[in-house]
TrEMBL record:
Keyword Cell wall biogenesis/degradation set for record: no
Cellular component GO terms, alphabetical: proteasome regulatory particle
Assembly and binders: The 26S proteasome is composed of a core protease, known as the 20S proteasome, capped at one or both ends by the 19S regulatory complex (RC). The RC is composed of at least 18 different subunits in two subcomplexes, the base and the lid, which form the portions proximal and distal to the 20S proteolytic core, respectively. Component of the lid subcomplex of the 19S RC.
Any coiled-coil regions, as ranges: 73-100
Lineage top rank: taxon: Eukaryota
Assigned keywords, A-Z: Coiled coil, Proteasome
Function: Component of the 19S cap proteasome complex which acts as a regulatory subunit of the 26S proteasome, involved in the ATP-dependent degradation of ubiquitinated proteins.
Gene Ontology biological-process annotations: proteasome-mediated ubiquitin-dependent protein catabolic process
Name of the protein in question: PCI domain-containing protein
Gene3D superfamilies recorded: 1.25.40.570
Any single Pfam family the record assigns to this protein: PCI
The species this protein was found in: Lichtheimia ornata
Length: 389
């Protein structure tokens, strides 16, 4: 596990873990929702997050405590006045650097208490000033975190694009690695699991982005995105044999069983692990929750295809036994995937046999060319009709 020195630690502004609690309070398992609400309210009161309190009570339809809100709002005004006084003093007695530091502190405070509009305004004002390249990059990182905090993928994407340009112009090693971790989270949230896995695996040994998530969560996401997107040989090399993953995976429920059972072809154990992964990790992650059905479906296809690759034909009874399910379940599940063209096999229900009909590489390429050629011809015909009109 990579060690994080204090100089590499970034303040949790805004605290993304609060967005996790908000998600659990809204969409998480019923038995976790009340606890998530209580954790949110405790953090809000401890940090005097008046703007976020107002936003949260509206989002979750919670009772609004006007006395608590007034007390927190007063504390916010007092703290913001301190930043104004500091900026004014710096303007009169110091230099531009000290003025910008005070303004950055005020922007950070707005972000910390959940005042999105004012935080964005103050950060963007600072980006127009003469500041160091490192400070500019750190501000855009803060904008990305605000986007993650409010589930604003458009904001996250646009600021990640800015970060790529800034880092190329003068980002240090730590900021380059941090950008990979942030982009991995973004790609995972939009279902680009292959891109996310690449970024996660690249930064496993250099992870320092604890302001976004714990290292255990980072490993969890690295495994989940890798298993669904990588070839078997790459999973062995980059995941199963990774010392960074092996160091902590036993502390993450069900994850070790999940990745090893699939690789070792223990399909009944894999199906049980997949069910546990769905309930424990997919449905409790605000990044993966929108993709739960897709993820579970794709992993079933991966497992079925892996078994079928080893046989020209096998009985439905033996396949059902391998997966620890009934023949009726296998029949229904395979039928959907065969009809959709996701599995290359046919079911002989009368004889209770599944026969594989995998095309060879040349046939597969030929079919792809035919399909793409037909698509191109259709588009040309449509275009010609428009031109004729």
């Amino acid at each position: 596990m990579p060690s994080s020195t204090s100089e590499n630690e970034v303040p949790k502004i805004p605290d993304v873990s609060l967005a996790h609690h908000r998600f659990i309070a809204q969409y998480g398992p019923e038995d976790q929702r009340d606890d998530a609400k209580q954790q949110l309210l405790r953090e809000i009161e401890a940090k005097n997050m008046a703007p976020f309190y107002k936003y949260l009570t509206e989002a979750l339809k919670l009772p609004f405590d006007s006395t608590l809100y007034a007390r927190m709002e007063a504390a916010n005004k007092e703290e913001l006045q301190r930043f104004d006084d500091k900026a004014q003093d710096a303007e009169q007695n110091m230099g531009e650097t000290e003025v910008n530091e005070a303004l950055l502190g005020k922007a950070d405070y707005y972000a910390m208490i959940g005042d999105k509009e004012n935080a964005l305004e103050k950060y963007n004002d600072l980006l127009t000033k003469s500041i160091t390249p490192g400070t500019r990059i750190d501000i855009v990182f803060a904008l990305v975190r605000i986007g993650f905090f409010y589930d604003d993928n458009v904001m996250v994407r646009s600021n990640i694009d800015k970060l790529k340009e800034l880092v190329e112009q003068g980002g240090d090693w730590d900021r380059r690695n941090r950008l990979k971790a942030y982009e991995g989270v973004y790609l995972m949230s939009i279902r680009d699991f292959k891109g996310a896995a690449r970024q996660f695996i690249d930064t496993l040994s250099t992870f320092t982005s604890t302001e976004m998530m714990s290292y255990q969560d980072f490993v969890k996401y690295a495994v989940l995105t890798s298993v669904i997107s990588m070839q078997r040989v790459d999973i062995k090399k980059k995941v199963l044999d990774s010392p960074e993953i092996l160091e902590v995976i036993s502390d993450i429920p069900y994850l070790e069983d999940y990745m090893t059972s699939l690789y070792n072809c223990n399909y009944a154990q894999f199906f049980r692990a997949l069910a546990n992964i769905e309930q424990t990790h997919l449905r409790t992650s605000r990044y993966l929750y929108p993709h739960v059905r897709y993820y579970v479906r794709e992993m079933r296809i991966v497992a079925y295809a892996q078994l079928l690759e080893s046989y020209r034909s096998l009985t439905m009874a033996s396949m059902a036994q391998a997966f620890g399910v009934t023949e009726e379940y296998i029949d229904r599940d395979l039928y959907k995937f065969i009809a959709a063209g996701r599995l290359n096999c046919v079911i002989d229900r009368v004889n209770g046999v599944i026969e594989t009909n995998r095309p060879d590489a040349k046939n597969a390429q030929y079919q792809t060319v035919i399909k793409q050629g037909d698509l191109l011809l259709n588009r040309i015909q449509k275009l010609s009709r428009v031109i004729d009109v």
